[in-house]
Amino acid sequence: MDDRSPFHPMTAPTAQRPLLGMTILVVEDSRFACEALRLMCLRSGARIRHADCLASARRHLQIYRPTVAIIDLGLPDGSGIDLIKELAQAAPRVDVILGMSGDDFADTAVDAAGADGFLAKPIASLAGFQQAILRHLPPERRPTGPRIVNDERISPDPVAYRDDLVHAADALQEDSEENTIDYVTQFLGGIARSAQDTSLLHVVEAISRARRAGEMPISEVARLNGMVRDRIAQTAAI
């Protein structure tokens, strides 16, 4: 079903709510990042649908076609690049496909996969989020007349950050395989940037550098595990 079908009545976008009438599929495993995007969609007038992995996104896309797909690159069951390629080659095509990552250099891979644009984490600017979508829509799908540029900064609920930390701690406890370490480090890198947790980010980046060199920094992984658990304990009262 197309989310823009007669079963989903369209409402024209306005200057205050420039994404009104649109449905945005967010494929993101971080609750913290997803909560930020949910708030941005709410402020912009868009409906949001959420998938936390590739399998869930593909199930959704078998039934609905959103206006916009925002796809994180690091997902628990694979790379978002694969889904971007699928959507870019599909007919009919999703109107706007955006890749998303905490790695600033990932924009090249996103562009090569066929996406329309790239969102760098952390995503905090409401105006930047709206413009990233609007610039790729045809003129008739954009608000008419002058548009109010709302540069509000979005701050997600810190409870969502704690939930992400618990998810990472569980993954580290259950599996110490290289693929799991790689997934957890990229996952924590994204949320550390979003939460401006610089000390956690420094450890994540050290592990990432070692992994790119083909090494497994056992001591740094243990340090990361301890830092994550300390943060969970500190936020337990939230």
UniProtKB/TrEMBL annotation:
Source superkingdom: Bacteria
Keyword vocabulary terms for this entry: Phosphoprotein
Statement: the UniProt record of this protein carries the keyword DNA-binding: no
Chain ranges of the Response regulatory domain: 23-136
Pfam families for the chain: Response_reg
InterPro entries: Bact_response_regulator, CheY-like_superfamily, Sig_transdc_resp-reg_receiver
GO biological process, one term: phosphorelay signal transduction system
CDD domains for the chain: REC (cd00156)
Gene3D superfamilies recorded: 3.40.50.2300
Positions of post-translational 4-aspartylphosphate modification: D72
UniProt xrefs under PANTHER family: RESPONSE REGULATORY DOMAIN-CONTAINING PROTEIN, STRESS RESPONSE REGULATOR PROTEIN 1
Descriptive protein name: Response regulator receiver domain-containing protein
UniProt source species: Shimia abyssi
